[in-house]
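#structure-requests
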Amino acid sequence: MARPSRNLDRALIAAGQALYPATGCAGLTIRQVADAAGVNIGMFHYHFKTREAFLRAMLQATYEDMFAILPTPPSKVVARSEASLKELVRAGLGALGHWAREHRTFLARLLADCMGGNAVAREFFAANFPRHLQVMGSLIAAAQASGELRPMPVSQAIAFCAGAISLPLLAVGAVVDAGMLPKARQRALESEVLSKAAVDQRIDLVLVALSNPAPASRTKARS
């Protein structure tokens, strides 16, 4: 007997990704996913067995798509010029910032599920979020060691980046999505805070703030 096409599991995951921001882990049902994917429930059980296994696969697939666009950590780059290390940081911030922008409702729901104590969401978060933080930490530490970025604890630098770049997407995005403001104000916020250009501007500002004011000194980062 031929194995059913893997396109079906991809279709189910895509359907789950589209539904998840509105339902969260607790509200997402097998029937909803199968109907949205145009797949019968038997095929859902064939590929994923249980709803919890599907949720794990769907969250993991979403994360791996994001992780794949991060730049290569400096330790894995052969003969990379020190002058490009800050640009690697920029590339990493851009990858994460624009992914968060494009998936802000998904990310907001995931954080809400984690805060609400959902076991699948919390296990996923604990297993995966340190991965991209480690990549960004390596990029920032390398740029600090080269003297391009000012020395400070890497965790402080990461927190500053996240607070300046991604947090406005979640906070302002939640206000806009809730429809609590006049339409004209919502449109202004979408342009001034939530747009691609706005994210790029915040990345520029972050890099100005993190840059070493005296790069010629080649100041080393604190250990």
